[in-house]
Description:
The structure is a homodimer.
Chain A: H1 20-24, H2 32-45, E1 56-57, H3 72-82, H4 94-105, H5 122-135, E2 146-150, H6 151-163, E3 172-178, H7 183-190, E4 194-199, H8 210-221, E5 225-232, H9 244-257, E6 260-264, H10 281-287, H11 290-293, E7 298-303, E8 316-322, H12 326-337, H13 344-354, H14 364-390, E9 395-396, E10 405-406, E11 409-410, H15 414-423, H16 427-439, E12 441-442, E13 444-445, E14 458-461, H17 466-489
Parallel strand pairs in A: 1-12, 3-4, 3-5, 5-6, 6-7
Antiparallel strand pairs in A: 2-8, 7-8, 9-11, 10-14, 13-14
Helix pairs in contact in A: 3-4, 3-13, 5-13, 6-7, 14-17, 15-16
The structure holds pyridoxal-5'-phosphate (PLP) (2 copies).
Amino acid sequence: MAGKNGKMREKSLTMDTLNPQVKAVEYAVRGPIVTKAGDIERGLQQGQKHPFTEVIKANIGDSHAMGQKPITFLRQVVALCSFPELLDSSIFPDDAKQRARRILQGCGGQSLGSYSASQGVDCIRQDIAVYIEQRDKGVPADWDNIYLTTGASDGIVSILKMLVSGQGRSRSGVMIPIPQYPLYSAAISEMEAVQINYYLDEDNCWALDINELHRAYQAAKEHCHPRVICIINPGNPTGQVQSKKCIEEVLHFAYEENLFVMSDEVYQDNVYSPDCQFHSFKKVLYEMGPEYFNTVELASFHSTSKGYSGECGFRGGYMEVLNLDLEVKAQLVKLLSVRLCPPVSGQAAMDVIVNPPLPHEPSYLQFHKEKSAVLGALAEKAQMTEQILNTVPGIKCNPVQGAMYAFPRIFIPPRAVEEAMSLGISPDMMYCLRLLEETGICLVPGSGFGQREGTYHFRMTILPTTEKLKVLLEKLRDFHIKFLKEYASLEEPKR
Amino acid sequence: MAGKNGKMREKSLTMDTLNPQVKAVEYAVRGPIVTKAGDIERGLQQGQKHPFTEVIKANIGDSHAMGQKPITFLRQVVALCSFPELLDSSIFPDDAKQRARRILQGCGGQSLGSYSASQGVDCIRQDIAVYIEQRDKGVPADWDNIYLTTGASDGIVSILKMLVSGQGRSRSGVMIPIPQYPLYSAAISEMEAVQINYYLDEDNCWALDINELHRAYQAAKEHCHPRVICIINPGNPTGQVQSKKCIEEVLHFAYEENLFVMSDEVYQDNVYSPDCQFHSFKKVLYEMGPEYFNTVELASFHSTSKGYSGECGFRGGYMEVLNLDLEVKAQLVKLLSVRLCPPVSGQAAMDVIVNPPLPHEPSYLQFHKEKSAVLGALAEKAQMTEQILNTVPGIKCNPVQGAMYAFPRIFIPPRAVEEAMSLGISPDMMYCLRLLEETGICLVPGSGFGQREGTYHFRMTILPTTEKLKVLLEKLRDFHIKFLKEYASLEEPKR
Ligand SMILES: Cc1ncc(COP(=O)(O)O)c(C=O)c1O
Ligand SMILES: Cc1ncc(COP(=O)(O)O)c(C=O)c1O
């Protein structure tokens, strides 16, 4: 089309003029494999033929999508808050009504439809502080340090944004575990911060290794200014639960090197191994004494999306900050206020999670039953996943101690590696694509999370129902064996 | 505290090491005046004495907080989606149940608790496309171009983020109206883009002036690369509704200068003046012919927060994009996927707004009554605000044609201006602070939105109830007269 001076009107936004930081972002959990799985699903619905009748999505920690039922009490409270006329109805228990009334009291005009303060509804922040004190056996929590967020994602991105500055060698460096949850690498690219990889110790159940932290830090110091260390515990994608000793070492290291600590604890309720226990970074810091507790800057993150409730769609979450400079705190509130507030229904959901029915309340029994059922099933599936995967030649899976994922190492034959290289894709991507095409199973290649060079993995969730998960694992085993055979039996490439 | 080598552990995050772009952000709608209003409110509750008994907040477009009741039908649908057991209850009308069933069908595991696709729930996107086609009298809308967002704020920030690139003279420039809604300036600072101000024509009811656009563009071209023009229609903070002719001129200009167009149409349902009508940028573009409609890149934004529903807390919204390059579209989806998805309950609320009860459905009458009551009251208050303000000497207020705000020009005596300068604050900030302290009325100074140098304004919402608004306007009048007298009667400053 002809514009000014008879020129064609060009697109103003193309791949060439797109923000290069946006281009640099990668986010595998919803990457090409997932798009392809969606296409296949639609194809199946329209009668297309595939060697399977159903796509099984084990690519994302999305409990309800995999059939988990909502916790009744939580949904009752949210429904009551959404339509307060129900407060007069006899179909809801009193404890749900009491929670809803309290939340609505905290909302402008007593409506979920008002913007809350940018930091969140006051009484919900107070409930969260009480929850944290109980969780941490009395370590004090101040609700002034609590910020509601739009899922944990929003909190993580906001804190990172505060910490990024400088140019060249003084550019902020962010230490993240490898393998990591790719929100971290995506946010780091978007902000042009420097990603500093520290590798988790696969041979030691994905433990944090303090020597590796030192190595990564020292190497990074040559070309950037390391300012923050991120830890995911329990781990995504790796499913480990860090020991108290590991956490102490990290905190000591952060203290010594003046690093800000971000502890992603969205899986704090997802611990399955009887030998493991969740230790909050905050509690460990407290126990290290006031010299640590009163100085180390810490932000920890929680979410409605995980745990036993699995309420991802509500986009609820909170963060607690410790030892944040007062002026910086005001800046954080200002930054958050630009987007006005986190969804108030998500805040309400968060409130229920931190303030569930007590033993003397009418909803306690049902709540307790539902919660135990979810966590019990997850524990069972965690074990089953590890067991079955470890029966497959060429697959090695660490115990799934917590979170919702297994991240097994897979052996990919050299011929398959070569083939993938010639296709310009990573070998585990090729593996996952073929798995999807041949079995309908949707996993995420390890390369989307990061892994030591020359090693290959995939991440799978343990969220499908026990039956479906068993089918998945068996199909996966058969596929893997076939895959190994196929590439083993191929002749040497012709020269 | 002593760290490594006996050094004290310093804070890693201070005002000196904070991201300078975060520091640069300003957001007056929740700025110091609002903080102060909160302090006074708490003081009043604790029995502190003030020359008033109540703080009246007219600082933010937050309808429910100001007493507006939710639309029953919308809340019924959200409650049904939140707690689907209610689908069996006889207390809800069938049309609400039908809407809820349809939304749940579109959710993974039929639960509001699943992550939706990053672009939003398919059937909701389809409903939005149908709504847009109806609104625009048949102009085609493709649901592939619809993206659900976390409030309009999220969509606006995401599109801006795509468009920011380059360094120095090739850095992206973003044209925004002055006065503006400060989300724009805040996002521009945060992304280190270049803000290009074009001034709305106060003497002409805050109309867009094409000559001013040319002036601003030509001047900016010298030091940056103007890439995008933002328009807010109906206007915040200025309350005007742009004519079709103005919109045509803007679109022609954008076509000629190869600019991306962002049209913020969150107040599309808020038009009060009988002589005004809402024209969507998309429809006007369509009517300019295929040469325009098939080329100009446009993103338009809508929200659950405004209109007649005023559901701010749900953080619902959508954007429609036109003529976006296909690869860029994939990049946009990738960018959105990092934060997983917009709140699904907000998506549900958006669905009800675009798909309200039809005349033959059981909820129609009540819905229609509620909607008309809200919009009728706003129209009345818009007129009353303009009228009363224009009776005050030294205040001049344009007609409040739409949106929810008046942005009157106020005369501030030179002595008051000097006093403010000596205090290091803007004169309208001093004015609003004194207004708050003396009357309990909370407004936002014009300087928070931008204004021509040497002119002063404030923004007030028309959201308080009619009675309260009348009280507010009368108190404001008395304050203003007193303020003028006080500074007029002061002697010349001593030298
Ligand atoms: C480790 C970790 N952090 C944060 C998130 C973000 O979750 P949300 O934003 O839904 O709270 C996830 C989601 O999977 C996660 O696994
Ligand atoms: C012009 C304009 N755009 C966008 C927004 C953002 O609203 P939300 O994010 O609540 O949809 C507002 C809120 O006041 C506004 O006035």
